[in-house]
Amino acid sequence: MSPDCKQRCSYNCFNEASLEPAVFNRSFLECLVLICNYAITALDDAVLSEAETNYNQLAGMNETMYEFTNCSTKPDGYRLDENTTSSYAVIINGYISPVLVLLTVINNTLVCIVLLKPHMRSPTNAILIAMALSDMFTGLFPVPIFIHFYATERLHEFVPYNWCYAVKVFMEYIPTIFHTASIWLTMALAIQRYIYVCHSFKARSWCTIRNVIYGTVAIYVIATLSQILRFFENDVTEVYIASLLDNQTVVSTCSMTYRPWIKDHVNTFFGIYYWFRVIFINTIPCVSLVVMNALLIYAMRVAQQRRMQLLRQNKKSESRKLKESNCTTLMLVAVVGLFLLVEFPLGILMLCLIIKETFAVSLVSESTLPVASLFSNFCILLSYPLNFFIYCGMSKQFRETFKRLFTGAAMPTEREYSQYMTLPTENGKTTAETAITVFQNSTKGSQL
Predict the structure, then answer these.
(1) In terms of Cα–Cα distance, which of 355, 350, 356, 354 is closest to 372?
(2) CA proximity to 34, closest of 222, 324, 194, 247
(3) What is the DSSP string of 252-266?
(4) Residue 255, by phi and psi: left (phi above 0), alpha (psi -120 to 50) or beta?
(5) How far apart are CA 208 and CA 122, in angstroms?
(6) Which candidate, 35, 16, 34, places its Cα nearest to that of 24?
(7) What share of the chain is helix, strand, coil (3-state, %, to 5)?
(8) Residue 429: its pLDDT value, please?
(9) Cα–Cα distance for residue pair 28/14, rounded to 1 Å
(10) How confident is the model over 310-353, as pLDDT tens digits?
(11) How far apart (Å, rounded) are the C-alpha atoms in residues 98 and 88?
(12) Whole-model pTM?
């Protein structure tokens, strides 16, 4: 609000406030909040002093001197709909996303139950379990905010003071930690499978369940550290302000300001943060996964050619083993491919944003950015329940184990093949160092 408007409004509030000392402060402050659009704390001495000064300056002047046609201001309160395309956000966040998260929780819980069965335990499956949990929690934490605000009229009101910090934590900070962990776990999955297929002798010592657990813990710790400063970046102050839904009502909301250690270095802080995200959370993992997928696809083509040779030589047992190895690899390639399909748009969007903030070069319009971000995040959420269907469709062992959960049939006690699948060549050598370990009396079928 301009100084003239503040003076005028304060003058009117002084004149209209009760003359009784006991109620003067309350009635005057309510007037400042409801009429003048002040955002103030209870009985703010600074506001009272400023308003009294404004009143004294106007007292005795000719009231007709002041003709104000634009004395409105934008109150300093925290809103969720201020920088979003609310019509899309209400539909996606308020109604579709909670349903997708529910489906993700059901599907990923079933994935974890199946992969934790004794005959399914393996280093690869340990990573798949961690990925399922990361995806589930990425979608689960924002759901209370989605339902409480986006599915109701509360979206168009200031965020209540008691919700301000929770909104930041549950919508931004914690989901980013789990999403970062999910990205790095997917990269670890592709690297591990490449080692299995092309360097299986080394995989016996490198790719163990113990090492996977250590690696998973390290990934979660680093992902948390990459976000830890965000939890402490804001000072949250309670303010009283006129409601956006009922201008005759005063509501308690918050004003968020950066802490002094950030305020003095805002550009440096967020420049480092977003460049770190673009490089280490988007670019390097996505490029690595493209390379790993290409290598795995090439390895499968070599294996398929070898399988045809084995069939011509009537070596059906070896051919079947090679086919099962290829099925497992193909399934993981599909999982990684789905990940890349939904992550690339968000990575490109993040790159455009950081280029704009760093070099003042706008590659995406201001109006397009919120919509693109909303739909990019929605596509990622949409992909979370799909891995379950990939496992069911492409892994016979997963499918059979899942069916036995509901039929009551006994679970297999052993696995027929180890994780160390090979790509043998015609002359007895291998295209990669490989070996197949065969166990007796086990259930047939492909394994994750």
Answers:
(1) 350
(2) 247
(3) EEEEEEE-HHHHTTH
(4) beta
(5) 8
(6) 16
(7) 70, 5, 25
(8) 38
(9) 7
(10) 666 666 566 566 666 678 888 889 999 999 999 999 989 888 88
(11) 15
(12) 0.78
**Is the separation of the CB atoms in 214 and 127 below 8 Å?**
no
Q: Are 230 and 171 in contact (CB under 8 A)?
A: no
177, containing H or E segment: helix 174-198
- Alpha carbons 74 and 183: distance in angstroms, whole number: 39
d(CA 116, CA 122): 9
Q: Give me the amino acid identity at 48.
A: L
Q: What is the pLDDT of residue 49?
A: 62
Question: Could you give the 3-state DSSP secondary structure of residue 360?
Answer: coil
Instruction: Give which of 142, 164, 153, 154 is closest to 96, Cα–Cα.
Output: 142
Scored b (16 or more CB within 10 A) or e, 278-294 reads beebbeebbeebeebbe
Phi first, then psi: what are they for 354, rounded to 5°?
-70, -35
Please name the helix (run of DSSP H) or strand (run of DSSP E) that holds residue 242, with its range, or none.
strand 234-242
Q: Quote the CA–CA distance of 443 and 448 in Å, as a whole number.
A: 14
**Token representation of residue 47:** 């506001």
Report for 133-147, 239-253, 369-383: range of highest mean pLDDT: 133-147
Give whole-number Cα distances, 414 to 131, 421, 437, in Å.
25, 17, 12
Q: Do the beta carbons of residue 104 and residue 283 sit within 8 Å?
A: no
The whole-angstrom separation of Cα 360 and Cα 357 is: 6
